[in-house]
From TrEMBL:
Residues 45-189 form the SGNH hydrolase-type esterase N-terminal domain. Residues 199-378 form the SGNH hydrolase-type esterase domain. This is Lysophospholipase L1-like esterase. It comes from the Bacteria. SUPFAM superfamilies: SGNH hydrolase. Gene3D superfamilies: Galactose-binding domain-like, SGNH hydrolase. Pfam families: GxDLY, Lipase_GDSL_3.
Length: 401
């Protein structure tokens, strides 16, 4: 057997026989120069993004606490333990600034290393970089580093032309960040980023899907995609397996000032009975403080196994009807600013090809979700007069998705 394998592993290159070892692991990063980690060989000046003119978005309590955390460290309402831990994940966080730098690197200290079996480390623990102003942001690159490490330095770009650029840096989706430093060439000038068109914030509360599982890189979560289409701050409050519509979270979200819209997308974390108990109460608590803020309730996206397990499909359909009825009942009581979106349509045709495990979207799935939600948010936020979404609709699927 050894002789057969050895003969099979011979190949010719330029007429020379090369013996390929069959008992060593394959390291593509060593074989492909395009996959190798770039190191910085130039001196950089390291900046704290917590100081002007950098602007940090996506952390509702950052100004008071100075931590990259999605909920307050000591909230007035007691948090479920899992939610409290997941609040340290930095999903939805962004650093925005304008610079004429020709070189840009980051130094990062994470709370832990990559450890998820179904999500790329670049999405869990990496940063990605977009160049361009509002509505014109284009992806440039993602941090490259040894994913076994919790501390790393990574080059995002080097030796570009000296010209002014608007930069958005997206934080990791499924890991915490203790420290972050921005490295620019010493001659670089820094300026504030373009201003948002409003001080209001879009708040998205939900599940692991909301948090970003399993995007390949941070910019591909659906809330980050939407943030590139609307010149307004988004707060991602998705808690993996743990956002369950608790009243404490409703009270806490109601403390966020200047909400432009509240999106509730937590159905996938709860049973039919628990959704029936929590959704009307969650909305009622939020309405005590924000009586006219638009609220969008999204039913969950489909699961691939529903094609084979009828009970799964029935349970999702039952929960969709609960969400739809909850919205309709509030509208009947003159709550004109609450809407329903049938999430079963968001992944479109061949939805089963849009997830990594039947449940959590790939980049394709998240892009389809964002495409479906964009016209709805345009109407809710008053940014279009198109008829793709009628807020006064009383049809079965409010939103016509």
């Amino acid at each position: 057997m050894t002789k057969i394998c050895t003969e099979a592993c011979k190949s010719k290159r330029n007429g020379v026989v090369i013996l390929m070892s069959d008992n060593k692991s394959i390291n593509a990063m060593q074989l492909d120069s395009n996959m190798q980690i770039e190191t910085n060989e130039k001196s950089l000046y390291w900046h704290s993004p917590l100081k002007p003119p950098f602007q940090i978005a996506g952390f509702g309590w950052l100004q008071g606490e100075g931590r990259y955390r999605r909920l307050p460290e000591k909230p007035a309402w007691e948090l479920p333990q899992a939610v409290n831990l997941l609040a340290n994940c930095t999903s939805g966080g962004q650093i925005r600034f304008t610079t004429d730098a020709i070189s840009f690197s980051v130094k990062v200290k994470l709370k832990g290393a990559a450890d998820m079996y179904h999500m790329p480390a670049t999405g869990q623990c990496g940063f990605d970089c977009y160049l361009g102003g509002p509505g014109e942001q284009m992806y440039y690159g993602t941090t490259k580093y040894d994913h076994q490490l919790a501390e790393y330095e990574s080059v995002l770009f080097a030796n570009l032309n000296r010209e002014t650029r608007d930069i958005t840096l997206n934080f990791p989706l499924y890991q915490g960040v203790d420290e972050l430093w921005i490295g620019l060439d010493p001659a670089a000038q820094l300026f504030p980023p373009p201003v948002y068109e409003s001080k209001k914030k879009v708040i998205v509360y939900g599940t692991s899907i909301t948090q970003g599982a399993c995007a390949s890189r941070p910019g591909m979560s659906y809330t980050n995609i939407l943030s590139r289409r609307f010149n307004i701050e988004f707060l991602n409050l998705g808690f993996s397996g743990s956002g369950k519509g608790e009243p404490e979270l409703a009270h806490l979200l109601a403390e966020i000032e200047d909400p432009a819209c509240l999106i509730l997308d937590y159905e996938a974390n709860v049973s039919t009975e628990l959704l029936q108990q929590t959704l009307p109460n969650f909305i009622a608590i939020y309405r005590e403080r924000h009586r006219t803020t638009p609220i969008l309730v999204i039913s969950r996206i489909t699961h691939a196994k529903e094609r084979f397990e009828a009970q799964m499909a029935k349970d999702r359909a039952d929960r969709k009807q609960i969400a739809k009825r909850t919205v309709e009942e509030r509208r009947e009581r003159n709550d004109a600013n609450i809407y329903f979106c049938d999430g079963s349509h968001l992944l479109g045709e061949e939805a089963q090809e849009c997830t990594v495990d039947g449940s959590h979207p790939t980049d394709l799935g998240f892009l389809r979700m964002a495409d479906g939600l964009t016209p709805i948010l345009q109407q809710i936020l008053g940014q279009t007069k198109e008829n793709s979404f009628d807020p006064q609709s009383t049809k079965d699927d409010l939103g016509n998705i």
